[in-house]
Design goal:
Layout (H helix, E strand, L loop, with lengths): L9 H4 L4 H24 L3 H27 L18
Helix pairs in contact: 2-3
């Protein structure tokens, strides 16, 4: 399978999915918290624990996302860096 040739402008045109991940993680946290509370009130400890685990995972993901957002942009090569060479297989 041949790899497509890279143009070298990927760092200039790349888009970060961090905002989308932030909102999806927040949505997951809301639903997991609601599920945990609802199943706890309905005396379903197994399902409440499962939703609690999902809440924990979404919270860890949210912390990672916020850390990456607060780090800001990272180094990207300038226009003087030539495009990557196509691998010769």
């Amino acid at each position: 399978m041949a790899m497509p040739m890279r143009s070298g402008n990927e760092p200039l045109t790349a888009r970060s999915p961090l905002r989308l991940r932030f909102w999806l993680s927040l949505w997951g946290m809301i639903w997991a918290a609601g599920g945990t509370a609802a199943f706890a009130l309905a005396a379903r400890p197994g399902w409440a624990a499962a939703c609690g685990v999902l809440l924990l995972l979404a919270s860890v993901d949210m912390a990672m996302i916020l850390r990456h957002i607060h780090q800001g942009p990272h180094y990207q090569p300038g226009r003087d860096v030539p495009p990557y060479e196509h691998p010769r297989g």
